[in-house]
Specification:
With about 130 residues, the protein is of the alpha/beta class. The protein has five helices and five strands.
Length: about 130
């Protein structure tokens, strides 16, 4: 996604065209960041302007401000697309579907972390922004 002020076209962009923008990515501690980075690398993307942050909210703010483009979960941020604050960028090839998971370490079993992961799995609803 990107700001409509930055990404004016609605046509599909090649990876080379996408790389003309500053690419905002989640850090390598993020499953999504790893997934997107792996996809870009597999497509041979040359990214001269790359900015990484571990904060999805920071990436959202930078994207809405028009400072770059990023991958954001559609269900969660669909209202910002409807409000015209974000534009979906279609690419050729298409970005693969990215699964969302709650992860915890298995090498140090903990009822607490397993319980938190299960609670997240059963209660998270990505169709709403910033759930309380």
């Amino acid at each position: 996604m990107g700001s409509p002020k930055l990404v004016r076209t609605r046509r599909k962009l090649s990876i080379a065209e996408l790389a003309e923008y500053t690419i905002l990515v989640q850090g390598n501690r993020s499953g999504t960041g790893l997934w997107v980075s792996k996809w870009l690398k597999s497509e041979g993307a040359m990214l001269p302007r790359l900015f990484s942050s571990d904060s999805l909210i920071a990436l959202l703010g930078l994207t809405v401000a028009g400072l770059g483009v990023t991958y954001l979960p559609l269900q969660c941020f669909k209202p910002l697309v409807a409000e015209g604050k974000l534009r979906i960028i279609r690419t050729d090839p298409e970005l693969p579907a990215i699964p969302y998971v709650a992860m915890h370490r298995h090498d140090r079993p903990s009822a607490f972390t397993a319980g938190v992961a299960e609670l997240a799995r059963t209660t998270c609803d990505f169709s709403r922004q910033l759930q309380g």
